[in-house]
Design goal:
Length: about 325
Amino acid sequence: MAEEIDVKEVPGVGDVTARKLRELGIIDVKALLLYSPIQLAEMLNTAVERAERIILSAYNLLKERGLVEDDFVTADYLLEKLSRRRYITTGSRNLDTLLRGGVVTGAVTEFYGEFGSGKTQLCHTLAVNVQLPEEEGGLDKNAIYIDTEKTFSPSRIVEIANARGLDPKETLRRIVVARAFNTTHLLLLSHSLPKKIKENNIGFIAIDSAVAPFRAEYIGRGKLSERQQLLNRFMHDLLRVAELYDVAIVITNQVQAQPDIMFGDPTKPVGGHVVAHAVTYRIYLKKSKKNIRIAMIIDSPEHPPGEAVFTITKDGISDPET
Ligand code: GTP
Ligand code: MG
């Protein structure tokens, strides 16, 4: 990652505010862009107008140093930027081809599907694969795994690492795991991502499952709008983290059980349009025979509709034997 600017350098941030920001885990100026003025004002116990000025000054400072892009850029710059995106192999050539190279940096990719469709296995495989050298489909970087369902398994990581000739102990050390207890905790964790990304040279972040905690806590129609609002905030935080720090973020999501709708679409992911609007790519995972799974790209602006067949093995995600 390029240059880092201390929050102290932002015009309008004095010693006291700088200390408060550091205590909140906001050390790098870029991290200030993850907050809305209202959020920042609450956190600093200050006026919204002042928080707004701090965010704007932070933004201008980053622009001056060329650390965020100008608001108006030429289209050739955009193309050049797209060509700089990097990919992490999923372990399956078929799935990589469907995704045009694998799971991409600077974006949020959602994998959704019913239980046993392979979401957690895929996250485990990616957490190992990101550590591979570039010529083997990795980024030679480390992973963060946010586990909300207590399904992270170090012994699976060991198996996947062994299959790739990686030192299992070293591989485990290169994965930072956090258990999220509830949605409040999950939102807090998302705010400490910038700091963790810097400290640990992170290239991949898994959030497995991202939506389940919201679903579990905000039950019933009366709670729906509150839930969607929080979920919306969380999803947009993730998107900004992916873009600002150029990491690949994968979120997993279950499909909605709709027992009351007999002829409805049984393959709808939870979270509705809130999640749909915030993720960059959505991939639906469908169970087939035994350990065979089918991945389908849903609503992507740049991928043609398509399917890929992959398999789950002891060694992680791979292609079925032909
Ligand atoms: P939920 O979290 O319950 O929604 O499911 P999920 O989509 O996360 O499913 P997960 O990734 O946990 O996939 C579970 C499936 O992976 C199991 O049904 C097994 O078929 C397969 N699987 C998991 N571990 C292994 C393994 O070590 N070897 C093999 N061959 N298959 C495995
Ligand atoms: Mg799972």
